[in-house]
Write a structure and sequence with these properties.
Number of strands: 8
Distance between the termini: 33 Å
Strand order of the largest sheet: 3-2-1-4-5
Radius of gyration: 16 Å
Number of helices: 5
Structural class: alpha/beta
Order of helices and strands: EHEHEEHEHEEEH
Shape: globular
Amino acid sequence: SSSGRAVDFGCGTGGLCERLRAMGFRAVGLDQSASMIDVARAKTSPAIEYRIGSHADLPSLGTAQVLTCSLVLNYLPRLDDFARDAEALLPPGGILVTADLNRPYIAECLAARLIYEDFDSLDEPRAGVLNFGNGVSVPLTIRSEGEYDDLLLPR
C-alpha cells in the first residue's frame, strides 16, 4: 500500500529513493547532476521518477508527504531559500528529514588532513572547501543543530 509521495533532494545515484520506494512511497529523486540521475535511473526501479534540478524546482513538483536531503544542505549557501522551497512542497504535517556534516566531524578530518581544506577554524569550522582530489573543489558551509532548527523548524 502506498504511503504517499516522497522526494529525495540531492538524490545522487538513487539509493535513498529505492529505499523510499520499498517503504511504499511514490519516490521522486531530484539532483542537479545529469550524470548522477543517469546512474540512478540505470540502477534503481523504473517506478522511481527522476528529475534534474535544484531546490528551486521543489515547488514545481506539487506536494509530497516526505522530503529527504542527505549530505546536501552543506552545499547550499542560503538555507533560507531552501526552507522556502521545501515549505512549498510539503503540506501541513509533512516531514522533512535531513542529515549533514557536523563541526566535530569536519574538525577531525581537518586534523587528519583529509579532503577538507581552507576552513575558517580548526576547532569550530564553519566554512571551507571539500576537495575531491581530481581538480574538483566545492565550498561548504557547516551549520550547528541550532542553526538548522532556527531556519527549518516551524515557529
